[in-house]
Amino acid sequence: MVRIKHLVLLLCLSSVSCALSSQYDYSGYQTAPALSGVGGSAGTGGGAETGGGGGGGGCAPLTCEELQATCGTTLDGCGNVLDCGTCESPQFCGGGGTNRCGDIPCSPLTCETLGAQCGVVSDNCGTTLDCGECDEGTCGGLGLPNVCGCTPVQCSDAGVECGAHVNNCGQEVDCGTCPVNFACEDGHCACTPKTCEELDAQCGTVPDGCGSTLDCGTCPAETPFCGGDGPNVCGKTPCDPETCESLGAKCGLTGDGCGTVLDCGTCGLPTVCGGTGIANECGCRNQSCEELGKNCGSFTEPCGAQLNCGSCTAPATCGGGGVDYVCGCTPKTCNQLSAACGTVSNGCGGQMNCGTCPSPTSCGGAGVANQCGCTPTTCAAQGKNCGSISNGCGGTLNCGSCSGTNTCGGGGTSNVCGCTPTTCTAQGKNCGSISNGCGGMLSCGSCSGTNTCGGGGTSNVCGCTPATSCGSGLNCGSISNGCGGMLSCGSCSGTNTCGGAGTPNQCGCTPLTSCPQGLDCGSVSNGCGGMLSCGSCDDPETCGGAGTPNQCGCDPQSCAELGLECGSANDGCGGPLDCGDCDAPEECGIVSANQCDTPAPPPD
User: Fold this and answer.
1) How far apart are CA 247 and CA 233, in angstroms?
2) Is 300 helix (H, G, I), strand (E, B) or coil?
3) How far apart, in whole angstroms, are the C-alpha atoms of residue 50 and residue 46?
4) CA 597, CA 588: separation in Å to the nearest integer?
5) What DSSP assignment string belongs to 149-169?
6) Of 107, 168, 113, which Cα lies nearest the Cα of 146?
7) Do residues 8 and 185 touch, judged by C-beta distance below 8 A?
């Protein structure tokens, strides 16, 4: 058995040179392209994802950065979900464009508004939507992402050459008949080559009916002529070979009856050899929509038959992909849709990114979807009530001023009136009570030791200011400066001493009122510049007479001290003195007492 794949017609008895392919476009005489999406489902999320990198090498997933997505979840172009983070309050995901943070609340799209019948899509506001599964067909089965449908696989692509066949969409289709001498077995055209015996050929070369030739040998000497007794039968009479014309053969291979194979040529399109089932005759075999690779619309096939190949499932249209009578969809461009930014439907069930906007504009910022613009914010929208802020569009807003103890940003939030109570530490205070700056009071404690609150000259700060002068009446010695140190008040002069008058740290003098012990006569200093009388002495004592000032006493005199030369005398203190005798002829006391004198001569 010989099987020939992908054949629909065979030109002649056994020639494959005139075969007609089911992928031949008879209207344009060129090989028709395969249907988009043929061969299986695009799977959940579709087969032409935004940014997808499909193809033989697989899909290269995009990142949040490449998609310019700053928040929410979105698709990576390969059917997977990306988490691109969240926005800081008060911004909204989608407020600055698809999956971009901005000040304007985002209106999410739905599966219905996106035309998505299945799979996962983005709602343009940072969330992915699950649009379910298909009841019939597969998601992306028409080659359109997130659209349910089924693109029938052609007979040839399914490996079926002939007969009835249930395709991948559940439809029963006719995959055609087999060429002459071929039989359809399990969807394949098969041919059993003939033998020389079956062809009653004794000699020469003949077609085997399956595209090859048979060598049936030569004739024996007694019947030397091949064809002499009939086509390819040995005989004694020379054979007169037939021609294509004499046989009426218009095409293909046939025998000349004398052991040789004739090539009678090929047919002009759209006819094929054996096309009507008659060997070696050019004819035209009507083709089905499936054989011609068509799945929509009505047209006349190459052999003149009118075909109706059905309709397409939206958003696909007949010929929409650029191939006549084939369901497809040509995605719109951003320019065609007048979309300047953001993500929009491409009209074929997919989405496309039309770019970003220059600062300070944002996509949809002026309220028009997919157009760059900017709607100035307000102080209220930003929750601000003081100072100046950006309006988000290159200008500024004056949000007013604060009253009372509030200041702009005073509560810790910029451009919001508020008041953060101060602390004693922050103000450098440690005693007494101070304002907390927000209408209340703070108790900062008390002082210890010599410190007093404000004593150092700074209010509500413990401290001490030392005295720099001794004050009225204090003029000597040292006193406390009031802060733990000492202050010198000077010294006294003259008879004054510090505290001498009985008042501490005052120069003064207390006069003596009685003579010091042991002093009993005369006058002594009273210690304050005056004199004090100590009395008088009784004779024979004199004041200081014994050599000690202001003491009564007597200093006995000697004879010499008294100038006495002789005799007895008083020593001046009541004691006797013996002054001796005079040397003769002198006599004691004859002239003066206790004086040695020479007596006068007696008178004559």
Assistant:
1) 18
2) strand
3) 10
4) 6
5) E--PPPTTTTT--SSEEE-TT
6) 113
7) no
Q: Respond yes or no on whether the N-terminal peptide bond of residue 220 is cis (omega within 30° of 0).
A: no
**pTM of this prediction?**
0.40
Residue 332 contacts residue 315 (beta carbons within 8 Å): no
Distances (CA, A) of 156 to 163, 270, 330: 12, 19, 26
Specify the DSSP element, H or E, that contains 111. helix 111-114
The two three-digit tokens of residue 434, written as one number: 């101070």
Task: Give the HSE-up count for residue 528: Cα atoms under 13 Å, Cβ half-sphere.
Answer: 10
**Angstrom distances, CA of residue 93 to CA of 96, 125, 201, 271, 366:** 7, 6, 86, 64, 16
Centre a 10 Å sphere on the Cβ of residue 594 and count the other Cβ atoms it contains. Answer: 18
Residue 424's pLDDT band (cuts 50, 70, 90):
very high
Cβ atoms 372, 361 nearer than 8 A: yes
Cβ–Cβ under 8 Å, residues 81 and 73: yes
State both tokens at 89: 């309050």
Closest CA to 506 of 534, 532, 471: 471
Tokens (6 digits) for 204: 């020469």
Say how far apart CA 445 and CA 24 lie, in whole Å. Answer: 103
Position 6 scores a pLDDT of 32
Tell me if 454 sits within 8 A of 445, measured CB to CB.
Answer: no
- Cα dihedral 425→427→428→431 (10° resolution): -80
Q: Distance between CA atoms of 122 and 80, rounded to whole angstroms?
A: 11
pLDDT band at 13 (very low <50, low <70, confident <90, very high): very low
